[in-house]
Amino acid sequence: MKNLFWMLVGTLLAGCAGSMGKGNVRGIVTDATMNTVTVVSVDNGDTLSFSTMNADRTEAQGLRLGDTLEVSYSGKYQPGMEAMRLVVYPAALVGADRDEHGCIGSAGYTWSEVRKDCIRLFEDGIRTEAVDGSGQVMYVVFSPDSLKAELFSSESEGSEVLERRALPSGGHVWNVEDDDTKNLRYTDGAWTISRRGKLIFSQPKADNNATLGAWQELHYEGLLPAADCPGIRYTLTLRHREHSGDGTFQLQMTYLEAEDGKDVTFSYTGRRLTLRGIPSDADATVWQLLVDGKEKEVFNFLCEDDQMLTLLNK
Asked: Name one Pfam family in it (predicted).
């Protein structure tokens, strides 16, 4: 299933901030395609549809059919009117999708010991890359007081907690009292991880380059055709500096009714690169998504007018 070949042409939803509206409805999501969401009201059973093109989606990542959605809007309701803000309350998932802490893995959440909360590494972690080119990634998450740092590897489950210690020369390092400990430091404008004096992971310096502008986040959604199930619902989130075409991504693909009538979701994180040109169009813009991990999976999307994506290969 994970390696299912499919071709995608879809209009995607780009989310941006909006103010709270004067109206409010809560309902069950029955459709969420083509920049529109349809819900059945839990109050009176009415079917309502909204445009989500300009809605604030901060609290509506990973929207699924069957989720409860709260929609805020301005003015008297009209079919297809603009939603101002979306808040999703995910439907209960089955099986091992929720861990012992209640974190929903398919939505990209994992438990953080230093935060004592379910987090998404894509949003809350500092991404460092293996310097040997293996494709391994290590995310760093700090406790609220920065006294502890937690390391999450793309190649293993669980995490490793380091403690902050003062250096005789000034500054700090995060490690444990062990000869084989990893050492986390902030050096020359980037976070680095070393062991026994050897650098093993480093944060891309462009991620901390403020001259490239503030961080921006874009959201895209759609429903894809599939040969082996009713369709594939996807959610793509991109983060990048304002003046940079590169950054990071989180991609979720939900295969509808894929196993015994139940949905199956896969979540990917990694680095996004912006490339130029394809054989038929030298000026085409291609987003290359490099998935975290040694498997080095790659998604190549043709981007047209920031509105339409075509998956060139998987």
From this structure: NlpE
In sequence order, what are the beta bridge partners of 273? Answer: 288
Boundary of a domain, candidates 67, 89, 111: 89
In a domain? residue 162: yes
Which of 208, 234, 268 terminates a domain? The answer is 208
Q: Is the distance from CB of 130 to CB of 153 less than 8 angstroms?
A: no
Q: What are phi and psi of 86, to 5 degrees?
A: -120, 135
Does 235 lie in the same domain as 200? no
Report the CATH number at residue 152: 2.40.128
- % of the chain beyond a pLDDT of 90: 42
User: Per the domain annotation, does 55 fall within a domain?
Assistant: yes
Domain residues for the domain of 50 are 10-89
Separation between Cα atoms, residue 167 and residue 154, nearest integer Å:
29
Let me know: does 104 contact 118? Beta carbons within 8 Å: yes
Is there a contact between 128 and 191 (Cβ–Cβ < 8 Å)? yes
**Residue 5, strand partner residues:** none
Q: Report yes or no: 21 and 245 within 8 Å, Cβ to Cβ.
A: no
Position 1 in a domain: no
**Total domains present in the chain:** 3
* 3-state secondary structure (DSSP) of residue 124: helix
Check if the beta carbon of residue 31 is closer than 8 Å to that of residue 230. no
Q: Are 60 and 105 in contact (CB under 8 A)?
A: no
The Cα–Cα gap between 262 and 126 comes to 34
- Is the same domain home to 122 and 186? yes
Q: What is the pTM of this model?
A: 0.66
Give 32's strand partners. Answer: 37
Shared domain check, 69 and 49 = yes
Pairing of β 36-41 and β 47-51:
antiparallel
pLDDT tens sequence across 195-228:
999 999 999 988 888 899 998 888 887 777 777 7
- On the 0-12 / 13-18 / 19+ scale of CB atoms within 10 A, 250 is buried
Residue with tokens 């740092």: 149
